[in-house]
Amino acid sequence: MTNNIARTLQLVSIQHELAMAIGSHLELDKMLAVFMERALHRLSLSDVVILYDLPLINEEAYGEMHSVYSFPKNTTIVEDWLIQKARVVHTEKRTTFLPVEYNADFYYLFWVPDFGVLVFTRRGQSIDKMILDALQPLWVKLATGCIACIDHTSLIEEVEARKNAEHSLIQRSLLDPLTNLPNRKMLNMSLTQAIEESAESGQYGAIFFIDIDRFKVINDSLGHNVGDQVLKFIAKRLLSCLNVGDTLARMGGDEFVLFVTNLSTDLHQATAKAGEVAEKLSGQLAKPLDVQENTLTVSISTGISLFPLKEDAAESPETQCNTLIRNADLAMYRIKRANRNGYSFFSADLQSYSDKRTQVETCLRNAIEKGELELAYQPLMGSSAEIVGAEALLRWNSQTLGRVSPADFIPVAEESGLIIGVGDWVIQQACQTIKLLRASTGFNQNQYISVNVSPRQFNRADFVKDFIGCLRKYEVDSSNIRIEITENVAIGDIDLAVAKMNTLKAYGIDCMLDDFGSGYSSLSYLNTLPLKAIKIDRSFITDIDTSVYHQLIVKAVTDICNYSKLECVAEGVETQAEVEYLAKANLFKAYQGYYFHKPMPETQFLQLIQGNATNHR
User: Fold this and answer.
1) ∠277-280-285 over CA atoms, to 5°?
2) Of 127, 436, 593, 615, whose CB is crowded by the most CB atoms within 10 A?
3) Interatomic CA distance for residues 95 and 89, integer angstroms
4) CA-to-CA distance for 560 and 24, rounded, in angstroms?
5) Which of 86-100, 279-293, 417-431 has the highest mean pLDDT?
6) What local confidence, expressed as pLDDT, does residue 435 receive?
7) Which helix (DSSP H) or strand (DSSP E) does residue 196 occupy?
8) What one-character DSSP code corresponds to residue 586?
9) What is the pTM of this model?
10) Which residues are registered as beta bridge partners of 247?
């Protein structure tokens, strides 16, 4: 009884070990190798002969061998036939050669068509048939088109499922599902190898970081389905520009990365060729795209970084890969901030600029808690020299960086998302100032303070609710505060912008369009957006007394505003000649500029308002 139990446990142990060996690899050739290694060890088999390309054997022999899997001892005719076939057909491809003089007792044979496995027992040590029969379900086939063992076809389905799963995993891990281009992971692998080859050959290559200009507008206005189709078209257009050895990958969103190799051994020639590639990419994408009954024209901003990096030659290729992509990204943002639709090469000054931005972002994160932010107020003057309002302007005096220009920290706040918290702080501070003004100076209902609201802040789902809540908290009359927005608020989703502005208007809160004329400045905004006023950018006010062009533009805009019953404010008034021309033309409701007042601290502004109120009683 004990012997039977021991024997059963032995069989279960062998089955389990070999089954685990089979399932330990997704790659089927490794599965077979592990299986045969374990079988030889556990069962003391003497030899294994693996034959490849067995379809070379004639059909009759193939059918005969497929049906044979076990023979009695001393079946010398079958043994001789098998050995002869093994020697004649595939001697050079056998992993273990079986010599003719091998004359062992031949007890068990296992055969797999298309791949082939012959198993022979050690001389004089036959395997118990009970064990062999128990192992039949565990023999596995490596190639395709054949069952692993009689009456166990389900194993084949499992193997094929694993093979499909492996292929799917590879696809998902290395390819972008939308465009079928290499993804970031595969790009890094290919680029790392290219960097190594470039260092050895001395040939320069180049990384192109490509961003689709205003792609968000397409997504928001036409829908994500159209956006996805546009990305597919763009991928095809970019692929058409590639040469042998080039690699194009999608990094995510509307960002693509291309790297080209073997430009030249000369840096200047390589730079010139990289510029030609960038122009070719832009030219290819400039052609109109027809997507779901929409004809679209897109442009790209491209940053370029050459490799190998001489200054970082000691770094590993993997580190250089990350540096190159980051450098190209920085160069892309430079052209993005300039005028879009172009390309820019990475340079050392960009790295310095990037380091500075990183430092600004780090310090800005704690600026509110440290009490480093403050508001300055620049008055808006009426035609009778009375103060009709003021614009609240953010200032930052950093303990680490000193005074930081808004031109330096506002873009960083926008890109990092810090503008949300900073913008909320500005609104709260402005409300507190208005409360002080109403209490101490009789700040009337016709005067207001305007606060600048970024597109990112304005587009928040809770912006209107939070803004109104802040007014109620500080008991601020809605007529005493205005919101200044730029046209970028409307570009993303004009219907959403209109809906929010109408809600604000219902609460008595007016909106002003700031910097009109500095960007795309569509005149349709003046008719579409529920605005109270527009502020004409200082670029059109400067030298208006002598520039006929500026005069024509300003006259045309103010005529439209008068027709639409919009107030006009002139920004950047700085000279006596400008003031005299504007006063004579009588085009504006209010004026703002250094000629009248520079931005001032809250205490000084309170004093100015008190004096102004006294003078105009």
Assistant:
1) 130
2) 593
3) 14
4) 76
5) 417-431
6) 93
7) helix 184-201
8) T
9) 0.59
10) 259
